[in-house]
Amino acid sequence: MAATLRLTSPEKEMNMTHVIAIGPFAADVATVLQRRGVDDEPTLFAQGHGVVTSLLPRADAYVLITSRHDSKLVAEVGDLVGKWGASFVPVVHETRWLRVGPLSLPGGTGACAECFERRSIQHSTIGSALSDLHAFYARDPVGPGGHLPSHVLTAAGLAQWGLATLHSGDSGAHGAYRAVNVAKSQFIQGRTVGVHGCLRCYPLSESISRRDRSWRGLTDHLTVASTGSKKDM
Q1: Which value, to the nearest 10 degrees, does the dihedral of the CA atoms of residues 36, 161, 196, 71 take?
Q2: What are phi and psi of 5, to 5 degrees?
Q3: What class has domain 15-199?
Q4: Whole-model pTM?
């Protein structure tokens, strides 16, 4: 599947939302979103070849749809979108799940795709097997194909929920996610919390990361108290 090259003048007005689709499943979802008026010119990429960012038009919000699990790619595109000052809606076709999120607002912290994966493995009853499966996907960037029309429509609906949530102005939108199990009737939703020490979620550029402030404050207090005690001896 070749990438779509768009010839537009720099003066053309910025798109409100742009859809990026990777692989055949994602391309079908992009077609549904196109029919629904989300983006009339989505950018399509072949599975296993990443995203050529120079082909992407500027937009206020980006929807990235992947045909398989790839947290590294989602995190990298999310980083770029954040630098552009835009909102980000990743839609991922996992082994048995269709997931949207974690959603990202410009300037938000603590909700990257790799932290979401680490949290998922941490809280999963089959965390070790899930980690091995993700490693297998990383070694085989193409993988098996095939999907049902119902999965396509579900993913499109999840993408639209993500956009609506970001546009709602809800302060809890950043980091929010939803997922639907395609093998059985199961639905989950929640909000991602960044993993302690993640430089993407808690950059070193901050004087003290938000998750460290209470601990740093306590240690500073204990240091001062200890110094005072020695002087009194």
Answers
A1: -30
A2: -95, 120
A3: alpha beta
A4: 0.75
